[in-house]
Structure to design on (744 residues):
């Protein structure tokens, strides 16, 4: 089939999206307007928690204690400063008592405890100049956030002889939510103009550069509407907003870059716009669809975890991926149909483009790199693998922890309050282990307390505290170690192993961490299995090879080593903390590596599919293994690098957040996509494919027949001259004898 005839063939999908392009764009505009309305107020409905496993023992104990003993589970702290006077002085004590009475009278507050009501040493600072009033706010995360917003202004500031600042877990989460929303707006203001400049540099044409941004806006606004609907059914983390912006822009740019680039190539062959759109959708469009399914599969793996923090990223990620792909495959073709050759209008690099087109082949530099890599394939393969593994070594020393106030910037009031309590008050305010006992007789409870006190890592056991009218009581266990160190985590397991004749449940910061780690470990094989199976299947359907999918999974996982190593070196160990402006906690929040793996793996597969599709297209056409690798890297290398740089800009903008987890997510994924595009796709993939040679395309007969029936590739389906897997490549200048075509 000739090139022109090939392009003139317009399939059903092309006919559907190009028949009425103006109507398509009008419907897209209407969809975007409705999404703005539907997604309005979504930020106020998002929650700042979700790290705990809801079906764990610690979650049950925390909820039960909040019902029976609200004072044992305070989430609000009023730090009362005597302004130089002792907290036991009459003036300070009187004002402290008045503040406690006011707080206790609030119908949404329970469990109010103050130093002046109990004279408990743990509520008084070591220097006697400040003291605490603690309380518990009722309701779920969203209700508590609203109460904090209402209560804080009423108590913060000067009250007679004292000054009051507000802290506690509820205030920390409220500040997290507020800070993330402010940082997201700033990140968008940073990323959008830089992205537009980079797109103009890539396309040359200002018109072409605006198309990916349009696709991104549709995806981001559409996802906000989807999240608004999901909040009616379940809790959604406020952190998911960041992923929506990052993936919405990043993937929209990836998909639009690939489609617009292919459309311009088809136009350059002399095809009319409608035929060029048809050829683009049958080639690049198929690749975009496969890429979107692969990324969505990677993100969907987070649905198996019980923590809504992780599930929220799956909701947001799947929605934004599908919307970005839908906009690229439905809205963008309509725009290209209307623009036609005007997609190259407002060319800001005419002189440079003309010189490049007349003096050299586009992508020639990547072709030279591919040839060099294949000539020294063992050296490049071993060197790249060794370098990536070396960069990942710090992850072997990872220490997992829980998120706390140190996620916030130093200027945040709740962070300052918690730091003051941490350093100036006796004991560790977050380190105690609480044991809930239900159905225990007094003698049983006394014996149980004694057995816990005899454990080697216990300093002392306080209690029991009983609830009137119930058979519930709780004990407070003070450990020798820090709040969540390995010794305290081990103590949690030891307490849970103490035999009882009644129901005992353990909670506290260390217990929550133990349960979170156990929940993730239990579900991790299922998540990894989902990612591996779906990726292997989709890449097989794209290539017809059983070797390439295995290579893709292994090389993608390898590309993430630098990200994980840097996360530990920077954020756990505290290197560059001054430059990046954060407080190191000495640990990594337990759920974050899972999130970063799923997101970065999906994005790496995004680039992998782009490269493999062009290699497969050329291999189907020529049957030349080596030249196909060169061709694929030549045609996609510049595109993948540009897409990776643009996505890295978006992620770095997200990484300017003042919240440590968001900073870690943005900067870590930025590094991962750059390493994937510039090391794995440019060096490691050509080297490994050269080493595996013709066997790269091998598949057993039964799977080959399956692919012939169900497989989809970027090629147009023209007859291909594909040699048998065992045949050697021709030497330069040597003519190949035609052989029967064989798909895959």
């Amino acid at each position: 089939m000739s090139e022109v005839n090939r392009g003139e063939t317009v399939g059903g999908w092309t006919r559907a999206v190009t028949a009425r392009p103006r109507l398509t764009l009008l419907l897209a505009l209407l969809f975007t307007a409705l999404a703005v309305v539907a997604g309005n107020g979504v930020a106020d409905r998002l929650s700042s928690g979700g790290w705990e496993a809801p079906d764990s023992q610690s979650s049950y104990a925390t909820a039960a204690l909040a019902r029976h003993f609200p004072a044992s589970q305070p989430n609000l702290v009023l730090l009362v400063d005597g302004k130089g006077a002792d907290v036991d002085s009459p003036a300070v004590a009187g004002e402290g008592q008045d503040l406690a009475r006011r707080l206790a009278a609030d119908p949404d507050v329970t469990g109010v405890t103050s130093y002046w009501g109990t004279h408990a040493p743990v509520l008084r600072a070591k220097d006697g100049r400040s003291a605490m009033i603690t309380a518990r706010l009722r309701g779920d995360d969203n209700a508590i956030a609203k109460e904090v917003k209402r209560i804080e202004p009423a108590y913060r500031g000067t009250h007679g002889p004292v000054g009051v600042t507000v802290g506690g877990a509820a205030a920390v989460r409220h500040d997290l939510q507020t800070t993330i929303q402010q940082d997201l707006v700033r990140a968008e203001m940073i990323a959008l103009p830089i992205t537009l400049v980079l797109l103009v540099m890539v396309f040359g044409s200002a018109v072409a550069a605006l198309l990916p941004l349009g696709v991104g806006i549709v995806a981001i606004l559409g996802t906000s509407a989807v999240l608004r609907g999901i909040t009616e059914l379940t809790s959604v983390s406020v952190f998911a907003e960041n992923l929506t912006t990052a993936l919405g822009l990043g993937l929209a740019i990836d998909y639009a870059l690939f489609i617009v680039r292919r459309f311009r190539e088809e136009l350059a062959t002399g095809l009319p716009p409608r035929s060029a759109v048809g050829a683009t959708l049958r080639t690049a469009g198929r690749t975009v669809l496969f890429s979107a399914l692969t990324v969505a599969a990677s993100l969907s793996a987070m649905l198996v975890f019980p923590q809504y923090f992780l599930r929220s990223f799956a909701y947001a990620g799947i929605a934004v991926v599908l919307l970005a792909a839908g906009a690229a495959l439905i809205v963008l073709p309509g725009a290209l149909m209307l623009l036609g050759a005007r997609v190259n209008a407002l060319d800001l690099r005419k002189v440079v483009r003309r010189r490049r087109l007349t003096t050299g082949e586009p992508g020639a530099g990547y072709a030279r790199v591919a040839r060099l890599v294949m000539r020294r394939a063992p050296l490049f393969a071993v060197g790249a693998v060794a370098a990536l593994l070396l960069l990942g070594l710090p992850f072997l020393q990872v220490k997992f922890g829980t998120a706390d106030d140190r996620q916030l910037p130093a200027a945040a009031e709740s962070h300052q309050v918690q730091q003051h309590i941490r350093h100036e008050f006796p004991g560790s305010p977050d380190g105690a282990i609480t044991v809930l006992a239900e159905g225990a007789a007094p003698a049983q409870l006394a014996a149980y307390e004694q057995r816990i006190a005899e454990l080697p890592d216990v300093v002392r056991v306080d209690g029991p505290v009983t609830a009137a009218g119930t058979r519930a009581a709780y004990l407070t266990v003070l450990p020798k170690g820090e709040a969540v160190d390995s010794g305290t985590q081990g103590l949690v397991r030891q307490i849970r192993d103490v035999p009882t004749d009644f129901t005992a449940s353990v909670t506290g910061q260390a217990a929550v961490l133990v349960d979170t780690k156990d929940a993730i470990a239990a579900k991790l094989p299922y998540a990894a299995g989902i990612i591996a199976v779906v990726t292997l299947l989709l890449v097989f359907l794209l290539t017809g090879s059983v070797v390439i999918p295995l290579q893709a999974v292994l090389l993608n996982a390898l590309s993430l080593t630098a990200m994980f190593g840097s996360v530990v070196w920077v954020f756990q160990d505290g290197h560059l903390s001054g430059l990046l402006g954060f407080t190191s906690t000495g640990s990594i929040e337990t759920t974050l590596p899972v999130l970063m793996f799923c997101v970065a793996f999906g994005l790496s597969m995004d680039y992998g599919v782009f490269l493999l599709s062009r290699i497969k297209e050329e291999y189907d056409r020529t049957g030349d293994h080596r030249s196909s690798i060169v061709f694929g890297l030549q045609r996609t290398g510049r595109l993948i690098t540009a897409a990776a740089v643009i996505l890295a800009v978006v992620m770095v903008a997200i990484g300017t957040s003042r919240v440590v987890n968001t900073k870690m997510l943005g900067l870590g994924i930025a590094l991962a996509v750059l390493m994937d595009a510039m090391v794995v796709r440019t060096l490691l993939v050509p080297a490994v494919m050269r080493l595996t040679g013709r066997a790269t395309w091998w598949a057993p007969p039964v799977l080959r027949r399956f692919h012939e029936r169900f497989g989809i590739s970027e090629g147009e389906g023209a007859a291909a001259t594909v040699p048998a897997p065992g045949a050697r490549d021709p030497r330069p200048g040597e003519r190949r004898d035609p052989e029967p075509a064989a798909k895959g």
Q: What stands out?
A: The CA atoms of residues 187 and 736 lie 54 Å apart. The chain is about 65% helix and 10% strand. Confidence is low (pLDDT under 50) at residues 1-10, 351-360, 715-744. Residues 169-203 form the longest helix (35 residues).
